[in-house]
Design brief:
The structure holds 2 protein chains of 2 kinds. By secondary structure, chain A is an alpha+beta fold. Chain A has helices at 11-20, 59-78, 94-109, 120-126, 148-161, 205-210, 282-292, 341-356, 384-393, 409-416, 425-432, 445-455, and strands spanning 2-7, 27-30, 47-48, 82-83, 87-91, 116-119, 136-140, 144-146, 165-167, 172-178, 181-186, 190-199, 220-230, 241-243, 254-257, 263-266, 270-271, 304-315, 321-324, 331-335, 400-402, 407-408, 475-476. The longest helix of chain A has 20 residues, at 59-78. By secondary structure, chain B is α/β, with parallel strands linked by helices. Chain B folds into 3 domains: 1-121 and 258-328, FAD/NAD(P)-binding domain, CATH 3.50.50.60; 123-257, FAD/NAD(P)-binding domain, CATH 3.50.50.60; 335-419, Immunoglobulin-like (Sandwich), CATH 2.60.40. Helices cover 18% and strands 38% of the residues of chain B. Chain B is built from 6 helices and 30 strands. In chain B, the strands form 8 sheets. In chain B, strands 1, 2, 5, 6, 7, 8 and 22 form a 7-stranded mixed β-sheet that branches. A 5-stranded parallel β-sheet of chain B has the order 10-18-12-13-14. In chain B, strands 25-23-30-27-28 form a 5-stranded mixed β-sheet, with no helix packed on it. In chain B, helix 1 runs parallel beside helix 2 (60-73) and helix 4 (165-176) packs parallel to helix 5. The mean pLDDT of chain B is 95. The chains are: A alpha+beta, B alpha/beta. The interface between A and B is large, with 58 and 55 residues. The structure holds flavin-adenine dinucleotide (FAD) (2 copies). The site of one flavin-adenine dinucleotide has 41 residues of chain A, from helix 1, strand 18 and helix 8. One flavin-adenine dinucleotide binds next to helix 1, strand 3, strand 6, helix 3 and helix 4 of chain B.
């Protein structure tokens, strides 16, 4: 019997797992995917917003301002990557300048730190490619960029070393309540029991609720966002995150420099019929291009290396829905965690555990809790001297496997090992960025296959891209070389 | 220590360049990141290499072996399993940073550098292909490597986007290995592969070629494996025409949508880039805008025939030796401009400081021409012309003529006149 079962290992489920590992409680995380951060937390803008635009007094406002601050702590404890870009919200004319003032007022009420209004000329100094059509800018220095996959890895890895259990490829298919405990069915045949159940299933959170509730208190509709990725060789083209003014559709198409140097253009915002199906379209991507061009001049469109889409879990309830079920005691929902859910994830976890579930009334603190996570080496970010020192200790840092992102053999080995090690191509890409660059894995995938094969003693025939059914190869042939 | 020449890349280009430099008694160090020499040739186990250079047809590895033998006979120094990660120039010296398990991170200095780093394959991301992102969409060259070097097939039922040579060759290869190949779609109204490959790889196996078609949707199954693709005809502006959709259930979509010269190593040097070749601009000595930095092979322009790579690279090697012998003096240079029906030219400059008898220009046509005359003008002056038949964008053309008569103040222009 577990004390807690968490359904879903996106950034929210992972942050909750870590928060619960502070207590002497037995926690299990169930995730239908073959890895953490594979759905909403996989495909987003990666921004830790300042909290400047949610409605005052909403949970979104409170948890994003708080969440933003928590990232600074998490950088120290969990080695979470942060790129302190700051952000500019831009206005193009008198009407937009008026809206910018309203937004500034919101930022003030939401207690966003350090915001200020800049003239076009002032903004241009730090952002030479800012569109010449911009007239005024709201500067938000606390807005920054993280690396969403690493957020989930960090939180989950730390949860695991503090005693949490994690099962992947575990699709929750049924929930029953017996007296004072839950029976959670996975993949239609395995049962787990727990006292409290946490539903952090993202776009599926209403469907999970529907497994046990008659009247689900919120419904999720998917809103798709499409992106272009510009190669990191264009680094420095913009330094800040550039936002247009928000509309009822959300924050609009942005230009966002990323932690590893690449630049995102997007997202658009479009209702989708199938909330599980992220697709890109000619029209959507054309919209992204057109709208990005309102923010900056000279966008290096010729350096685009990829496009992708993510689906936001938008609820008909117009705030985060973080509450105990009205029908079933002990069941807690995290519904409608769309943007700024990444920003807020650590605050969401603390809010849920301390203010909604009041865990400290039920369980003792875990005296062995270790808040720190082993630092991950990002070899290409080191100075030449640091590199040389490391290579002396470990020559495998000298062997470049991914030529575009300059990822070394040792980093890939590390990604396969450890509490959250992966044996898939996608898992290794998420952990190291091997295959995320210019050639998109065309060069290094083959080398990584060999490494996985060796490390796990697997035949290449059994190696998958991601889930079980995505095996790389369908048959062996005679080796014909030379 | 400072070496005369560092050659980056040990494929057909690097081998030929290194050999010709060495024959001029210069010190050469070749650096290759793979565990063997030969480059892309190692995975091209089909026939069709060497007809021009050796007057005989070899497989890729056989062709490479011919050069590797000579390379070894000349006792040229080389490093395998070693990646060049950085290239800068300090004064007159190049500093090449290498990384390997054996040597760690190390700087090597050179008086001249030859870039023979080959090319990389254009990916789905660069053409913003719509739809989902399942496993099963893979570049043809990667699939070829898996199949020919490692012995694994990436699918059983395939469709191919792009009629580049690798795609055509892979269509036949997968068919022969027992896979079903449902067709090849090409967005242009003509094929981008060699004609012999269309005949031998598609027609001989009844694999349909859909010209003016592209992939407009990609579908995946529940586990995110490719399930189906949709192709559509496109108009002259490449917009899909509705009503022309054809859906194919396949587990693999191979992409053969173009090769791009890999010049990422030049990022820290301010070389002038040609948007058409997507590589560095050069003068007739294969020298970039950085003195002493030479470039050839697929990293200069994507070649369809390896014989041209070898010839070009050995000329580049000779020019590098000339450079070391100070056989040129700074003089005026003029532009070589692609004119009517020409996609690109290389070299882009004629530099009068270099003293050659002939000017050799490579180019590709921008459309298919049954009969044409290649003409070179300086101003209104026709300085050279040659008849050509069956000129297609898929096949690189080369012309060569003496240029002593040209003046050094007017650009020259290459044109293809349709007959
Ligand atoms: C286009 C886009 C841009 C965004 N940009 C930003 C941004 O810049 N800043 C920001 O703060 N926020 C942003 N967001 C929002 C942010 O990404 C999300 O709020 C956050 O990722 C939500 O995390 P999550 O863990 O709730 O959801 P998810 O990551 O979706 O996790 C839910 C998990 O539940 C699992 N699951 C579902 N059903 C089951 C089941 N039956 N059994 C087992 N497991 C199940 C899923 O597989 C999934 O892994 C953006 C979102 C999108 C889509
Ligand atoms: C699939 C395919 C089929 C072909 N079929 C034919 C045919 O039938 N007939 C024909 O005549 N021609 C054919 N060609 C064309 C011809 O074979 C190639 O153009 C030629 O081999 C390219 O040689 P290269 O040396 O320029 O490039 P490559 O062979 O790609 O060599 C480049 C080398 O540089 C190395 N390198 C790159 N960067 C670095 C770095 N930073 N550090 C260290 N090393 C580095 C690479 O590892 C590689 O070995 C074909 C080409 C391909 C791709």
């Amino acid at each position: 019997m577990y004390d807690y079962i968490i359904i879903g290992a996106g950034v929210v489920g992972s942050a909750i797992a870590r928060e619960l590992s502070l207590y002497q409680a037995k926690t299990l995380v169930l995730e239908k995917e073959n890895d953490v951060a594979n759905v909403q937390s996989l495909a987003n803008s990666a921004i830790v917003h300042s909290g400047h635009n949610p409605e005052p007094n909403s949970l979104k406002a409170r948890l994003s301002v708080w969440g933003n601050k928590l990232y600074e702590e998490m950088e120290k404890e969990l080695d979470i990557p942060l790129l302190r870009t700051g952000a500019y919200v831009v206005a193009h004319n008198a009407e937009e300048e008026r809206q910018l003032e309203e937004l500034t007022e919101l930022a003030r009420i939401n207690q966003v730190p350090e915001f200020k209004i800049l003239s076009f000329e002032e903004a241009l100094k730090d952002e030479p490619n800012l569109s010449k059509t911009v007239t005024k800018v709201l500067s938000l220095p606390t807005t920054k960029v993280t690396y969403p996959w690493e957020v989930a890895f960090a939180a989950m890895e730390n949860a695991l070393i503090n005693g949490v259990e994690f099962i992947k490829n575990a699709l929750v298919t049924g929930i029953k309540k017996e007296f004072d405990y839950f029976v959670v069915t996975v993949n239609n045949h395995i049962e787990y029991q727990c006292r409290y159940l946490i539903n952090s299933a993202g776009v599926a959170s209403d469907d999970i609720a529907g497994l046990i509730e008659k009247n689900v208190p919120f419904h999720i509709t998917g809103r798709k966002g499409e992106y272009f990725v510009i190669d990191k060789r264009a680094k420095g083209f913009v330094n800040h995150i550039l936002y247009p003014l928000p509309t009822e559709l959300g924050k609009g198409v942005l230009i966002t420099p990323q932690y590893h140097g690449e630049i995102l253009l997007g997202p658009n915002s479009e209702l989708v019929e199938d909330k599980y199906l992220p697709t890109t379209s000619f029209a959507g991507l054309a919209y992204v291009k057109e709208h990005a061009a309102m923010l900056a001049d000279n966008i290096p469109f010729n350096q685009i290396i990829r496009s992708f889409a993510g689906i936001r879990s938008t609820a008909d309830y117009d705030d985060f829905y973080i509450k105990e079920s009205l029908e079933v005691k002990g069941l807690f929902h995290l519904g409608g965690i769309d943007s700024p859910g990444l920003t807020a994830c650590f605050a969401i976890a603390k809010y849920l555990v301390n203010e909604v579930m009041n865990v400290d009334n039920i369980y003792q603190l875990n005296p062995d809790f270790n808040p720190y996570r082993k630092k991950r080496v990002m070899f290409h970010k080191l100075s030449d001297v640091e590199k040389q020192v490391l290579i002396k200790e470990e020559p495998m840092y000298g062997n470049i496997i991914c030529k575009c992102e300059k990822i070394t053999e040792k980093e890939i080995l590390e990604a396969m090992r450890g509490p959250l090690g992966s044996n898939t191509i996608k898992g290794i890409k998420k952990r190291t960025r091997a295959g995320a660059g210019l050639c998109q894995g065309g060069y290094c995938e083959e080398k990584i296959v060999k490494m996985i094969s060796k490390e796990f003693n697997l035949s290449p025939m059994d190696i998958a891209y991601d889930k079980e059914n995505t095996k790389l190869f369908t048959q062996e042939t005679k080796v014909l070389k030379k | 220590m400072i070496v005369d020449v560092i050659v980056i890349g040990g494929g057909a280009s690097g081998l030929a360049a290194a050999i010709s430099v060495k024959k001029r008694n210069k010190q050469v160090l070749l650096i290759e990141r793979e565990n063997e020499l030969g480059g892309i040739l190692n995975q091209c186990i089909h026939n069709g290499f060497g007809l021009e250079v050796f007057k005989e047809e070899y497989t890729g590895p056989e062709y490479a072996y011919k050069f590797i033998e000579e390379f070894n006979d000349l006792k040229i120094d080389y490093l395998l399993n070693t990646t060049v990660i950085k290239l800068v120039k300090n004064g007159d010296e190049f500093v090449v940073t290498i990384s390997s398990t054996a040597q760690g991170l190390k700087e090597i200095k050179a008086k001249a550098v030859i870039i023979s780093s080959g090319c990389y394959e254009r990916t789905r991301g660069q053409i913003a292909m719509p739809g989902e992102r399942p496993r099963g969409v893979i570049t043809a060259g990667s699939a070829q490597r898996y199949l020919n070097i490692n012995g694994y097939m990436v699918g059983k039922k395939a469709f191919i986007l792009g009629s580049g040579d690798i795609g055509l060759i892979m269509a036949r290869r997968m068919h022969l290995e027992g896979a079903e190949v449902l067709g090849v779609a090409e967005i242009m109204p003509y094929s981008n592969g060699l004609n012999r490959n269309i005949v031998q790889c598609l027609n001989d196996f009844d694999i349909p070629l859909y010209l003016s078609h592209t992939v407009t949707n990609v579908e995946s199954d529940d586990s995110k494996r490719l399930k189906a693709i949709t192709i559509q005809q496109v108009d002259e502006r490449f917009n899909p025409i509705s009503g022309t959709e054809k859906r194919f259930e396949v587990d693999t979509l191979l992409l053969s949508i173009g090769l791009i010269p890999d010049i990422t190593l030049l990022d820290d040097l301010s070389v002038e880039v040609d948007q058409k070749t997507k590589s560095s601009k050069i003068n007739q000595a294969y020298e970039t805008s950085v003195p002493g930095l030479f470039i050839c092979g697929n990293s200069l322009q994507v070649h369809d025939l390896v014989d041209n790579v070898s010839k070009e690279s050995s000329r580049a090697g000779n020019c590098t030796a000339d450079f070391l012998e100070n056989k040129f003096k700074p003089r005026k240079k003029i532009n070589i401009i692609p004119g009517k029906n020409i996609l690109y030219v290389a070299p882009q400059y004629l530099d009068f400081g270099w003293d050659f008898t002939d000017l050799i220009i490579s180019f590709r046509s921008s459309k298919k021409l049954e009969k044409a005359i290649a003409k070179v003008y300086q101003g209104d002056n026709l300085v050279y012309q040659k008849r050509r038949t069956f000129v297609v964008p898929a096949e690189m053309e080369t012309i060569s003529f003496p240029y002593q008569e040209l003046n050094d103040s007017q650009d020259i222009r290459v044109e293809l006149e349709e007959l």
